[in-house]
Amino acid sequence: MTRLLVDDAALGYADHVVCPNVSVTIPDQRFTVIVGPNACGKSTLLKSLTRLLTPSRGRVLLDGEALHRQPTKALARSIGLLPQGPVAPDGIRVVDLVMRGRYPHQRLFSPWSPEDEQAVIAAMEATSIRHLSGRLVDELSGGQRQRVWMAVALAQQTPILLLDEPTTYLDLSHQIELLDLCRTLNRETGTTLVAVLHDLNQAARYADHLIAMKDGEVVAAGGPHEVLTEELVAEVFSLDARVITDPESGTPLVVPRWRR
Amino acid sequence: MTTLDLGRPVLRLGRAGRPLLLLDARSAALCAGLWTATVLLAGWAALSGAAGITPADGLAALLGRGDEYTTMVVVEWRAPRIVMAVLLGACLAISGALFQNLTANPLGSPDVIGFQTGSYTGALVVMLLLGGGTAAVITGALTGGLLTAAIVFALASRRGAVRGVRLIIVGIGVSAMLASVNVWILLTATVEDAIMASLWGAGNLSGMSWPLVVPTATVSIVFLVAAALLARPMKVTQVGIPFATALGQNVRAVQIAAIVVGIGLIALSTATVGPVSFVALAAPQIARRLVRADGLALGPSAAIGALLLLLADVIAQRLDPDSPLPVGIVTVSIGGIYFLWLLIREGRTR
After folding, report:
1. Chain A CB contacts of B239 below 8 Å
2. Quick one: what percent of chain A has pLDDT higher than 90?
3. Which of B6, B242, B249 has the CB atom closest to A83's CB atom?
4. B42 with B82: CB under 8 angstroms?
5. Which of A107, A232, B189, B219 would bridge B194 by S-S if both were Cys, CB 3.0 to 4.6 A apart?
């Protein structure tokens, strides 16, 4: 039994259901990646693992209890989220932004504690932004900024971390840097990671567990070698492609065929 | 164990290993300076004027050992007015800080979204159409302001969520309509009544007395404490609703609390002294420019608001001692100068 799972749920918004019927288990201490074409419901699925979206039918469970029934701050000490394209407040310094990540560990009257301080330092060191601590976020490059946001999520110190398209708007080297960071985090601290990624090859390379979605439904779930076959790429992405072995990582590599 | 580089001087209050509070040094110094200036200005306001009083006599009167005349002038006439200016200046500034933070827009202050115009409408209805004393006018102003706020929020919300810019635009629209209603009510009144009502409408601190100051101070302290407690949650809301929610915040509850406290503070000040504009709009902006802090900067905002309103009232009284101005006229004038300066400055940097 894994800690986090979606049990036969209907997910969506007030006016329309995106995923009428999904069941998903998130393996503990693994790096799970959700892939699928645009508007397939992958962000909706990720959001349902937080309080941002409550299922209209069925349940999303953490440790056997429905997510939206749990106290908000207690839940925030278990599950963290790096949302898509967050915007920093004007004139804020890196350190002040990272400190925001400690919110679920503080009470209304509780002071700033040494534990908070050590968590902020650890988060900044893990993301290699310690030297930027006193700088203004507005002055940083896109890659640095995304690492700052990652540090905010890390300062939250949750055993489960969700990432909604964390590599969007980053250039290739920063994408790899961020994914390497996620992999290290998962390997060293055993943090359960769930990410939505666009790039199939990156997904195959970094994921322990792949979830492929199409039209609001989970089409396949499992290890990258089982999931990422030529048939699945054709079915889910309507793409005629060869799947070969990545010479560097040994994971599946999707190479589209010439269209004839 | 290493410490954090905070990028600026920070005072760590409390035991060395377990500081209770991290206080921005610049912000603390600024607050100390501003409050010193406020106290000095208050002292000068209490002693100078038509009846000059020596510092020794003034102090004796405050301690209850002065002669009857000095006690009357300093304790009964001038002190309540000064206390009210300082208190309401702080209330207005914090109300502005809350609304600017909520709408994420420097123009999102309660006077822009129509609260004060609505209060004036309420007060005018009581003063000119229904007839009533001070208590009735306060009730009328409160009712008018709260109704206007409710209408503005109702018109600005879509699917239960209020967006900053929409709120401001709806507020300006409702405000303009109410302003014309106000003019119409004034035109139907006799000249004497219209002058009296206009004086209230300009925002006026004259005629303050302890029986009005004490309850106002009590209520304002409740709201000010609530605002201080909202400071940390609102800093988290600033990172955006998805992130704040993931950080365990009930964003909606925080926003509603901020709206209630923000409206409470502006309502308190408008009901007692009439619509004093510009302080709520500018004090938080001035504070942010001086401290360069993220978040609400409640301390510096309150200090600037208090000093600003007291200064405006002193200028209003002393400019022409024979015919003192309503304080609202001075704050509007200072506001105009501030905006010109802001435009020139922003024009240069772009």
Report:
1. 86, 88-89, 97, 100, 152
2. 83
3. B242
4. yes
5. B189
